[in-house]
Amino acid sequence: MTDVTITQPTLNGDLQLDQKSLVAARVFAVKKILGDAAANKEDEQLLEIANDIHSKAEQANATQLEKDESVLLYNQESLVWAKNNDFTGLLGNDNTEKRLQAFKDSWSLALEPPILPLFKSRTQLAEEEVNRRYPDENYAAELLRPQSGTNLSTEILTKQQVITHYKNDPSVLHKYYDQFSNYISQNLERYVSGKAYSILNRNGVKWTLRDQPFQAVWKITRITEKVKTIPMPASLDGRLIIDSEDIDRLDGESYLFKDADGHFGLVKPDGNLYFYPKTYQESQLVHNNIPTEQAVRLGLAIPKTANSLKINIECERLSIDGSLKRAWQIPLFIETVKFKYNPMDGLNVNNFGKTQKDIVVGGGLSGPPSILFETKFGYFGLVRPDNSIFWYNKDYNPLVKGEPGYTSIAIALNLKPSEKHIGWKRDFYPINQLNNTVEENKINQHAHLNSLNKVIEHNTSIYYQKVIRQWKTSHYQADGFELFCRAIIPFYEVIHNEIFDQDYNFEFKDIALDVADLTFTLATVGVGAVGGIKAIRAAITAAKTLQGASRAAKASAAIRTLLKSTKTSSFLRRAGKELTDFVLPVFTAKNAATTVVRAGVSGTTSLVTKLRSVLKASDESVDLLGSVSRFAFGEATNTQILDHLYSEVVNLAGKHVHVPSSITLARLKASLQEGANRSIPDTLYRGQSGAPSGAGLPRALGAAAPTTDEFLVDLIKHTSNSGGSGGKSLSLSSDASLARSVANTRPSGRVYKIDTTQNPDMFRSIEDILLEEGPRLVKEGKLPPGRLKNAIIHVYSSRTEQEIFYMGGDIPAEIVEMTPWRPANELSETTSIQDNSKQLVQSMASFTDKSSDSSGVSVDLSRTSHEAVSLPINNS
Fold first, then answer.
1. Which helix (H) or strand (E) covers residue 548, if one does?
2. Average pLDDT per consecutive 10 residues, the chain (876 residues; last block may be shorter)
3. C-alpha–C-alpha distance, residues 867 and 679, integer Å
């Protein structure tokens, strides 16, 4: 079919989502399928529609059609996800099953995350043992128990005394040490796999490169640096003697690699990644098969100071690929030397008259053969008789006229010509095929480390076992605990620093383990989109509340709470419901791929029709006008209008998810009046995509003039938000962390400071606008009563937002200053970590011509071509 140029759908921004995340892919897929019908719909509404379709498909009484619709939608989500993350190896007609499996694995990691290594201290275990033995807290019996050298001879024992004693009880000690070994044997492998997956995603590594064999890899085992120490005066002539010392610069093993695309990178001892700029040549990073000083300093962030003298690198070039271009077996290598026969030496008479002699120096009857080989990437190496491998420099060709060269073999075998050397001889023959032979095993000695995924998992596993051992040894001392938190929580520093900066009345250690347990779940919306520590704590509470629930249910609750804590949308608030749970499909990737083909035209048509009908029902479930009574707004006073809307809001108490049962008329009035009376802070903040330097903060095209009632209506609609204002209204906040969380979800996000001191009267709080302007606009028919009511509900339920607006429209440059804050993905670039994030691709879901739907449009989701076209929508 003919390719059609399409416009990339965008998020409305009412949910703070990383655009590469799983949740964003779900929203994008529905947007793409519905086309114009989804225009101006809130992201939250579209997410709810998709979640509902998937949830119903998992029910026991689900029809086959409902299951097929879920699979087809899931397939479209996977296409969007693969494209947005530049996982080109998962696209194409032959990769449906592979893509669906990868997408499902990603959701599985989020909804059924691996169990993290969260251990208990001896004190905790001792307290549990004491509580078990003495539920009535009568510790008198403890005085009669045989003690192990501990003096408890006192009339009254405190609980703390008994706990202290039980810390050394054999049962407690066994539990303490067993928890570490049990975790390593039962859970570490899946945690390491999940950790490697998150590292690869964070660095934007293409899917095809994750398990594809390296071109080459070097294991760095030790790095020492000789540095100058304090100069010591000489004893005789007064000269300074420069002393030095060797400092270890590597704790563990690192791997310098060249991936299948020819790009160099380094896996650090903890499994994290560094990619070198693509402008670097191999000769700059590797010399004589040893990583250069420049390579290790860049990759491991080892600074070079004025005291640096020399750096020494110990490494091994690994043998990773048995898929060779060609190879030769060399069973015999001989040195020919000068010879003179001497009868007195008792030598063999057959040597009489000879002037030279052959000496076997490699192979022969007593030793295994050598193997010269060339990898498919053009690297030459030689397997020595002792099975070690010698690698030639990249630019060295050991062949002479297509055959193994004598000198090349001698170099690899570490042979030097003897004093009587005449020349070399060798026997060789080509090896046509290496299939599970001894030769292949020799050349492929390190196959377990031949790809990026394998090396990251290898180092991550070693690193976490080391951290676990250190924690175990520390007995939960502060240093061991902090080391462990830094190791297992990817954004430890961000959260730790925010708590410190904001002067919270709790420490990071108070929530550290709960945060760690949500590590993989948070990635579904993107760590950069998480709304600060407040949102994270809310998610923790939501997960903990579901005692006895499955890990999937707890993870889903955490995601829903994160979205609710950071969003600015209103669909669910107006609908009076919570977001439907996220569910993990029960189908296998193989069955799903089969369904995509089997469902064909009927399944495609059904999905499109289903989404349209569900969207229509969703719209109808929300009363946009809000008011259900026949109140005469046009004849009422401003006070009467507000009192009526207040009463309607209070009547929703306990019936509407965003109207708490504790609300009263007095509390509602007082809350809004307090906001209206609040002084405008000297500094306000806004998070958005970067604006041109010196341009201030302009609004979107089509924004109303600031002197009109239309401008005021837009501000109130922005707050009630039934689709977002599209940049026509610029909301500000006194909370810098809220601005940062918004900016994190925007392309090239920036945080701006707005100085209000020059003209404070030009700024008004949303509460002031609602109370002073809202009733008049309703009375004059310029604002639907339901919009004002929804805005009141939003302001009351989101009191911490403290929304403020500049009443002059575009915010002038002279009061705007860009802060130095930058999004997490840009900060990673400053540390030279490869950021492969691309602009969102132009085509999203896959639709190809096969059959006509009810509007006469040909669509077919059974094919998996990733060349997408627009799907016309019949809105009649």
1. none
2. 40 66 88 83 84 84 86 90 84 83 84 76 88 83 55 67 85 83 82 86 84 90 88 54 82 93 94 93 91 95 90 89 78 88 60 76 81 87 87 89 92 91 90 58 76 92 84 58 58 52 48 56 55 61 60 66 56 55 74 77 77 76 49 88 91 74 90 93 90 79 84 87 64 89 79 94 95 93 85 83 91 92 64 32 27 32 30 28
3. 54
Helix (H, G, I), strand (E, B) or coil at 440: helix
Pull the structure tokens for residue 215: 């071109």
Over residues 13-24, the pLDDT tens digits come to 556 677 788 888
Q: Which two tokens stand for residue 709?
A: 């009632």
Q: Which residues of 537-574 are buried (b: 16+ CB within 10 A; e: fewer)?
A: bbbbebbeeeeeeebbbbbbbbbbbbbbbbbbbbbbbb
Neighbouring C-beta atoms of residue 819, cutoff 10 Å: 15
Is the backbone of residue 703 left (phi > 0), alpha (psi -120 to 50) or beta?
Answer: beta
C-alpha distance from residue 721 to each of 8, 44, 378, 472, 626 (Å): 23, 11, 60, 51, 13
Strand partners, 360: 334
Tokens of 103: 């997408």
The answer to whether 843 and 867 are in contact (CB under 8 A) is: yes
CA 383/CA 388 separation, integer angstroms: 6
SS3 call for 681 = coil
SS3 label, residue 767: helix
Residue 108 identity:
S
pLDDT at 873: 27
Residue-wise pLDDT tens digits, 96-128: 888 888 888 888 877 777 777 778 888 888 999
Contacts with 229 (C-beta within 8 Å, 6 or more apart), sequence order: 243, 244, 245, 307
Q: What is the pLDDT of residue 44?
A: 80
Q: Are strands 403-404 and 308-317 parallel, antiparallel or unpaired?
A: unpaired
Token reading at 252: 């563990």
Secondary structure (H, E, C), 231-297:
CEECCCCCCEECCEEEEECCCCCEEEEECCCCCEEEECCCCCEEECCCCCCHHHHEECCEECHHHHH
pLDDT of residue 876: 26
Q: CA 324, 326, 329: angle at the middle one, nearest 5?
A: 110
Residues 6+ apart with CB under 8 A from 108: 584
CA distance 506 to 503: 8
Q: What proportions of the chain, in percent to the nearest 5, are helix, strand and coil? A: 45, 15, 40
H/E segment holding residue 620? helix 589-620
CB 46 within 8 A of CB 614: no
The secondary structure of 128-140, three-state, reads HHHHHHCCCCCHH
pLDDT of residue 209: 86
CA dihedral sign, ordered 754, 755, 760, 765 = positive
- Both tokens of 553, joined, read 């249910």
Comparing CA positions, the residue from 387, 388, 412 lying closest to residue 399 is 412
The sign of the dihedral angle between the CA atoms of 545, 549, 550, 556 is negative
Please return the burial class of 292, using the count of CB atoms within 10 Å of its CB with bins 0-12, 13-18 and 19+. middle
Give how far the C-alpha of residue 68 lies from the chain's centroid of Cα atoms, to the nearest Å: 30
318 secondary structure, DSSP code: -
Residue 381's Cα: distance from chain center in Å? 38
d(CA 460, CA 270): 5
| Cα distances (angstroms) measured from residue 403 to each of 374, 397, 427, 555, 723 | 12, 11, 11, 62, 72
Backbone angles phi, psi at 258, to 5 degrees: -120, 110
How far is the C-alpha of 836 from the C-alpha of 202, rounded, in Å? 9
- DSSP states of 564-613: HHH----HHHHHT-PPPPP----S-HHHHHHHHHHHHHHHHHHHHHHHHH
